[in-house]
Amino acid sequence: MDSNTLSQLFNATLSQDQSIRTKVELTLKEYEIQDNFMNAVLTVICSENIDLGTRHAASIYFKNRIRRGWDTEKDAISENDKAFIKQNIIEALSKVPPVIRTQLTSSINIIICNDFPEKWPQLIPNLTALLSSNEYQHNYIGVLVLNEIVRIYQFKKDESEPLAQIVEHLYPLTLKIAQNAANTDTLEAAEIIKLIFKIYSASIQCDFFPCLQSEAYLVPWGTVFLQVVEKDIPDSVLPETKEEREKYPWWKAKKWAYKCLNRIFSRYGSPNSLKEYRQFAEGFTQNFAPIILKSYLKQTELLVNGRFMSSWVLHLIGDFYTECVKPKVTWQILKPQVEALTKYFIFPLMCFNNEEQELWEDDPVEYVRKRFDPMDDFKSPVASAAAFLVTLVKDRRSRTFMPILEFINNTIEANKQPQDMNSAFQKDGALAMIGILSDLTLRKNSPVKDQMGNFLLNLFDDFNSQFPFLRVRICELITKFENLELTDDQSKLALQGVMNCMQSDELPVKISASLALSSLLQYESIQAEIGPHIGVIMQELLKLLNEIDMDTLTPLMNKMVELFADQLAPYATQLCEQLKDTLLRMVTEANNENANEDDAGNKIMASMGILRTISTVVLAMEASPDILAQLEVTLYPVIHYILEKEIIDLYDDIFEIIDGFTYCQKRVSNVIWNAYGLIYNTFMNDAIDYIREMFPCLDNYVSFGSDVFKANKDYQNKMFEIIKTVMESDALDTTERIYGCQLMETMMLNCKGVIDEYIPEFITIVHKNIEDPEELPSGFLITCYEVIINAIYYNPLLTLSFLEHINYTSTFFTKWFASLDKFKRVHDKKLCIVALLTLLEMPFENVPKTLQDGWGQIMFALINLFQTYPKAVEERKKLEEDEENYEDAYEKLLNGDDGDEEYVEVEGDENVIDGDGEDYLQLLAAAAANEFGAFDSFEELEEELYFQTPLDDIDIYIKFQDIIQFISQNQLQSYGLLTQSLNPEQQAFLNHVMEIANHNRIQQTQTPANPQ
Question: Where's the Importin N-terminal domain (predicted)?
């Protein structure tokens, strides 16, 4: 196809007429499998005499075609075209404008992912030639492609050889380019330096190659980094607005110079570095870090003298100072500068400023988002300065704590009753600093711990400040000092101030006051004060939520629902009606195809928070079935909309609400049954990855809705289709397939005598999954075995008949009995016992010969299970206690409650070696184990404390006694085979089991059932 015809086709793809676009797309689809077609497309892209819009459309098609057809057999790009593209695409980069270059660069990335290095050996020689050239354009294109290679390999530590080769052979060339560019002032030089430093930074994210650690590399690279850091960018050449200055190419280049130096020091070059880099760290800390620190201090001095510094660079300097507090060598340089850095670097960043005031006045909602969204702190100078401040006080306490507190106190006193904006700014900065240090002031051996209550009380006048931002700050301090034990009088004064602020006309003040109220709710006296007004407060919070469309307030709403469930009960339906309206508005706006991406993201996050509040309301109303019935009707439109519109981000929360309704009522209403088909469609369409989140409500449909489920064949078929998909889909692994096994178990335990037709299907599914048991994780294997064990319990005759049909009876029982030690949970043992007892109830003549031959093994298995059952019960109780203790400890940690933790400070100026975070990491590990351990470790299944089945009501000791007595009287052959090989010790143990059964019978007649 000639380029003229092809360009006309791509031009037609820009038509406003959908029918024309559709016709052209079909035409392109026909042509794309032809040899040399992609060559022609690339020619169009590079043709300067063709309209830019057409070329851009062609470049997008080119990228998408490569993504679809480069590494696939279906609709594959021909080998001739692939060869042509690899020979010409890099040169093409120099012939196109930036907007098209972006598409070609993405195409190169795809090709590199699939072909480099084996199928594209000429790529490195091509790059070498480009990077060795004296032409800027050649250098820039070479660097651009090199960036794509490094991006692909930067996190592949186990496949690092190609990157190691590139670092060794190509980095010297990029270094020379950077050195030359650093000596010029052009914007082009800044662009290529930025890209080279970005490449360097990417290559040291996970590893620091030995060649880069050598002085031959480290010194020249470090020198050029510092040269760019120190490069003078006169304010006179910068754009006028701060926003444009932030984007200025040389400040972007500086950012990446700082990032490279920071990364080397923080990950590889400090005393806290990974063990494998300790030797490098010793040399770097002694010889290089001091030079970098002195350079950063000079830059900070320029900032103090009024020179512009980008926000990113400010942040990175703060990060580096934080790292320099710990090593002795850098601390000794930093120590004399602490007072100046506190006053001129940290403090100004803490102060409210004109820029924030302008945003507050112009767009208070956006101000609230920036102020209260934790993600907005990410990589901000304020967050960096705060971390530096905390590290100074925490790790070098004797030198910094009291002087810094003195500075804060003096600043507050000097601006106690601010009359002008500048004075108010100063006070705000000091209050921000004390808030940041709040936890440290309250530790056990803090010299000011006992004074903090009165200190805070003396600031309460700011609740009525003429400056709204100071009202925000005092409310924030109530939150920061929530671990400070206020007296009843102090807490009531704080509540009065907070409630006054909630009545403010200023949105940020009302939001901060709401968050402060959350902290005050820990006091019973405060709960008593606001309890009668909880309905009004919740209405105010809902109004605020509708104004900001953020999830900032939903944790407070959740807390209030939990604390005031009884008082809120009369308002629950009205509250959920309003939450529903707010939620549907937000998700509808977020789901609009024209929605701003950031705004839509905020609305979805806020929707998640609302759904969690709704879930909390549902759980809080567990004892009020009438209210729950009303809430189901009220909230069903939310369930329907989210599932029908396939709003994936909200699936987790919506499934939790359905689970809450069914679990709290122990029944499934007609309203919630209406959602069953939606859940099925959702799963089949796009939610297979959400089986873990979906499982509890699916399980409840069968467990608590068994009467309806058993009577409805369509419901059964839908559940079976879900199970079959889970067990057979390549998109899921054994982690998720456990849920399929559990759904089969739920059906068999709750639908006895109704689902016979599915039993062979269930056995067939798990039989396919366990054909090679040695390769399977233990946890998954056991759940597969339990499907067949459940089938035996469901209908032993039907199950044994099918096992015989597939010639699996003897094999299964052999594997089952050999694996009994892996059935460790209470449920596992109980299931095995009732299944084996069900077998014993069968007429012996109906037992297959393959099983009759080993009949006595059943009694040995039962003895094993009864012997280990008490330990399983004991472990379960211990787990329940551990979970309570874990939740308390985890909550304390997340709340920053260090209790009586003392300062631990190194002597003198010695290195500070990090020990912080160990408790946190251990608790995170515990959290992971609690939440995912049963299914993710796979070494063994863990107890599921809230898992309920019909087996819970069975006393296995009484059942054993009843069945043994029955067969001893009615099935003598069976009884004889079971008992003939028992030794005296085993016989004595069985007598012990009988004694427990007798004891339990007596207990049942005296107290409510408490099955074993």
Answer: 24-95
Q: How far apart are CA 576 and CA 579, in angstroms?
A: 5
In whole angstroms, give the CA distance from residue 941 to residue 869: 15
Is residue 725 a contact partner of residue 688, using CB atoms and an 8 Å limit?
yes
Q: How confident is the model at residue 1012 (pLDDT cuts 50, 70, 90)?
A: low
CA angle 61, 65, 66 (to 5 degrees): 120
For 941-991, the DSSP string reads PPP-TT---GGGG--HHHHHHHHHHHHHHH-HHHHHHHHTT--HHHHHHHH
- pLDDT tens per residue, range 752-774: 999 999 999 999 999 998 887 87
* DSSP 3-state of 486: coil
Distance CA 824, CA 828 (A): 6
The token pair at 761 is 């299907």
The pLDDT tens digits for 332-390 are 999 999 999 999 999 999 999 999 999 999 999 999 999 987 666 667 999 999 999 99
How high is the pLDDT of residue 261?
98
Rounded CA separation 110/124 (Å): 16
DSSP helix/strand/coil, 307: coil
Q: Are 309 and 296 in contact (CB under 8 A)?
A: no
CA distance 601 to 599: 5
User: What CA–CA distance (Å, rounded) separates 886 from 794?
Assistant: 38
CA distance 176 to 165: 18
- Nearest one of 513, 514, 415, 518 to 468, comparing CA atoms: 513
CB within 8 Å of 187: residues ≥ 6 apart = 249, 250
Q: Quote the tokens at residue 968.
A: 């001893």
Q: How far apart are CA 684 and CA 687, in angstroms?
A: 7
704: tokens are 């608590």
- How many angstroms separate the most distant Cα atoms in the chain? 105
- Count of Cβ atoms closer than 10 Å to residue 585 Cβ: 14
What is the number of alpha carbons within 13 Å of residue 800 lying toward its C-beta? 22
What's the mean pLDDT when you consider all of the chain?
92
- What is the pLDDT, as a whole number, of residue 75? 82
Tell me if the pTM is above 0.85: no
- Cβ 538 vs Cβ 575: under 8 Å: yes
Alpha carbon of residue 269 to chain centroid: 29
Count Cβ atoms within 10 A of the Cβ of residue 392 and give its class: 0-12 exposed, 13-18 middle, 19 or more buried.
Answer: buried
Residue ranges of the alpha helices (H) in 415-521? 421-436, 438-441, 452-457, 468-480, 488-502, 507-520
CA 867 to CA 183: how far, in whole Å? 81
CA distance between the termini of the chain: 79
pLDDT band (50, 70, 90) for residue 156: confident
Whole-angstrom Cα distance, residue 891 to residue 876? Answer: 22
For tokens 């990090």, name the residue. Answer: 914
The answer to whether the beta carbons of residues 314 and 251 sit under 8 Å apart is no
Nearest to 789 by CA among 743, 755, 839: 839
Which domains, and CATH codes, for the chain? 1-113 (no CATH), 325-520 (1.25.10), 532-715 (no CATH)
Question: CA-CA distances (angstroms) from residue 919 to 26, 395, 414?
Answer: 60, 18, 41
Treating both helix axes as pointing N-terminal to C-terminal, what angle do 956-970 and 856-894 enclose, rounded to 10 degrees? Answer: 170
Question: From CA 87, how far away is CA 830, in angstroms rounded?
Answer: 68
Q: What does the block give as tokens for 108?
A: 């190169």
d(CA 789, CA 800): 11
What b/e readout covers 720-733, taking b as 16+ CB neighbours within 10 angstroms? Answer: bebbbbbbeeeebe
DSSP string covering 574-625: HHHHHHHHHHHHHHHHHTSTTS-HHHHHHHHHHHHHHHHHHHHHHHHTTT-H
The SS3 assignment for 506 reads: coil
3-state helix, strand, coil split of the chain in percent (to 5) is: 75, 0, 25
